[in-house]
Design goal:
By secondary structure, the chain is mostly beta strands. 11% of the residues lie in helices and 30% in strands. Strands 1, 6, 8, 9, 11 and 12 form a six-stranded mixed beta sheet that branches. The protein has a four-stranded antiparallel beta sheet with strand order 5-2-7-10, with no helix packed on it. The chain has a two-stranded parallel sheet with strand order 3-4. Keywords: Membrane, Transmembrane, Transmembrane helix.
């Protein structure tokens, strides 16, 4: 397996791959801003919406399977109809009913470490600092990106983007094609916006975004730690333990791939959060 050391501008497989981390602000979609070029006859575009809960209305009861059905439809589009993932707009619950976001301000990852201002949760007059990220791939080959946030306070690892693997040998198409970009938290990337929150009185905090890139789909589910290992369940077991099922799936996928042709890379961004 070839190892690629990533920088903001890289060569070889992930040539000129850049992370852009922006504040994003709410912007209503107007008729003028939503007129795009119509697809040609050889391109298929799809909009898949699944809403179980309408957050802004008490008149609509919660559904049970709308989101699951939407996920199943998307899988059919990708695996059977071979629709490119970047041509599918997938909206789930609040994503389908929220306001449209657009990037605003400068690239927050232009410097290492990055500094992000976080409003106080008790300040009702403060504007929320909603964050989004853009991944650019100006290189010659497609890649699979896997982005996580590492919190050193409670040792949790939260995924922001984690492409599907696919069933059996039906590997899904890479979401970040050569010469394309993938938006997170806005646009049609499918991920929800990111927001930092202070839960205590500390003036600043620190965390890490880590991006893994591979030339073939990988299973990073076993890396996720949504619960802190500092706590225990009623039986006395530590929370945040690895799931055996996910580890086995990752191992099985690795055996299916040709290690002599696989390539991967990693990029780390330190984010210092400062209370406003």
């Amino acid at each position: 397996m070839a190892l690629l050391t990533l920088t903001w501008w890289v060569s070889f497989l992930f040539e000129l791959l850049v992370l852009v981390f922006n504040y994003i602000f709410s912007q209503a979609v107007t008729e003028e801003s939503s007129t795009d070029q119509l697809p040609n006859d050889n391109t298929i575009y799809a909009l898949v919406i699944g809403i179980n809960t309408y957050a802004y209305s008490e008149d609509w009861p919660d559904l049970q399977a709308a989101v699951a059905d939407a996920d199943a439809i998307e899988a059919v589009l990708v695996n059977q109809l071979k629709v490119l993932r970047q041509n599918i707009i997938n909206l789930r619950d609040g994503q389908a009913t929220r306001q449209e976001y657009q990037p605003a301000g400068e690239n927050l990852l232009a410097q290492e470490p990055a500094h992000v201002s976080v409003p106080d949760v008790d300040d009702v007059d403060a504007d929320a600092s909603v964050l989004g990220m853009t991944l650019y791939n100006d290189g010659p080959e497609p890649v699979y990106p896997y982005l996580f946030y590492f919190d050193p306070n409670d040792l949790t690892i939260t995924p922001w983007v984690m492409p599907a693997v696919g069933a059996a040998l039906g590997l899904v198409d890479p979401p970040l094609l050569a010469g394309s970009k993938l938006t997170l938290g806005y646009g049609n990337g499918g991920a929800t916006p990111w927001e930092f929150v202070f839960t205590d009185d500390r003036p600043k905090d620190v965390g890490f975004f880590k991006l893994f890139l591979s030339s073939s789909p990988a299973n990073f589910a076993c890396l996720t730690r949504r619960k802190t290992p500092f706590e225990r369940d009623p039986a006395g077991h530590r929370l945040g333990a690895e799931l055996d099922k996910e580890v086995k799936e990752a191992t099985a996928l690795e055996k299916r791939l040709d290690s002599s042709t696989e390539r991967w890379g990693v990029k780390l961004a330190t984010v210092i959060q400062i209370r406003k």
